[in-house]
Design brief:
It is a single chain. This protein folds into 2 domains: 3-197, Ribosomal Protein S5, domain 2 (2-Layer Sandwich); 200-372, Alpha-Beta Plaits (2-Layer Sandwich). The chain has 11 helices and 13 strands. The protein has helices spanning 3-16, 90-102, 126-142, 151-163, 170-177, 219-237, 250-256, 260-284, 292-304, 311-322, 348-362, and strands spanning 22-31, 43-44, 46-59, 65-69, 72-78, 110-116, 182-187, 193-197, 205-211, 327-331, 338-344, 368-372, 379-380. Helix 2 packs across helix 4 (151-163) and helix 10 (311-322) packs across helix 11 (348-362). The longest helix is centred in the C-terminal third of the chain and has 25 residues, at 260-284. The chain binds adenosine-5'-diphosphate and magnesium ion. The site of adenosine-5'-diphosphate has 17 residues, from strand 6 and helix 3. Adenosine-5'-diphosphate (ADP) binds at residues 53, 69, 71-72, 89, 92, 114, 116, 120-127, 130.
Length: 381
Amino acid sequence: MSDISAKAAEAFTAAYGEEPAGLWAAPGRVNLIGEHTDYNDGFVLPFALPQRTVAAVGPSPDGTFSVCSTLAPEPVTFGATEPGEVTGWGAYVAGVVWALREAGFEPPAARIAIDSEVPLGSGLSSSAALESSVLTALIDLGGLDVPLERRPAIAQRAENLYVGAPTGILDQSASIRCEAGKALFLDCRSYEIEQIPFDLAAEDLAILVINSNAPHQHVDGEYGARRKSCEESAAILGVAALRDVSVDGLPDALDRLGDEVLRKRTRHIVTENQRVLDTVALLRAGRVREIGPLLTASHVSMRDDFEITVAQVDVAVETALAAGAYGARMTGGGFGGCVLALVDTARADETAAAVTAAYADRGFTAPTSWVAVAGPGATKL
Ligand code: ADP
Ligand code: MG
């Protein structure tokens, strides 16, 4: 049993005085490319991290739900609730129960204990890992017939409507639908998916993930402002979403958007969608190294047009490129979080060391780095 599985099971026994009926795991994710495109009905390409959240779950004796975490050992208990009734971290779990009911499924009353190795609030989606582990557990435990393709939207509704965080469908889709050795090409309008081969080790390549450990600032407000600008631009252009503007149609669209901020935001989304399609085409053709320039172009677009980077992530990208990375970009919603760099496996350690040294020179909090291999999506252990 892995360390987090053992810790989740121990937390269950400590809180409820019995063994769990089973263990379910769901991963955090990194987005290879396609940032802020999900709520523009566009394309994303995440893969699942090896870091996972484990839910130890068993039936409840009294019809209520209880949930505790190694980070919050005192169980939160609730029955049938509406959004707003459970607050704090328990809202992610109460939200999943609520969203299942809303979707017409009756989840079994359960006791739940959580442990996780996904860093919280680093843009690696510990929130989706939490929702997805609990959702998968309740579906399995209750024998609910919820098709895999419906599950991400249920977890997303929990986060959007119960927790109150206006995220797109990317995180939950990744945590639930990713497969080992694959990147998940997701069309956020049709929810169609394609598993794209992403076996970097075969090419002696690696994705180095660098957690900037930069304090997240103004994230919610800035995220909301970006969404609003995108919706405003789409309305002016007379399209349902910015997904409907092609790269060929971009010059004309920019002419019609008088406002410089709207022009920049639109340019990022339109070019980013194209970069996802180009990345997928290269991966399908086995030309993995060549995605590097697309990753770097994505970062430049996030930095200059979408304006969601901070000094720490810019320095990590510049340093990784100077150390020989094929490409590098911030991943996640922005204003801190993580950077990924495509590197020769043999150079991963020295690239990480170069970023650590660059941070020390500038007096930034030290970063944390590791090589990420595409892992499986949510599953019973
Ligand atoms: P991210 O998803 O990028 O990690 P979020 O702010 O979306 O950041 O989600 C983090 C929140 O999810 C935490 O503040 C906490 O409420 C909840 N959460 C995630 N994992 C756990 C856990 N293992 N135990 C308790 N709460 C958790
Ligand atoms: Mg999150």
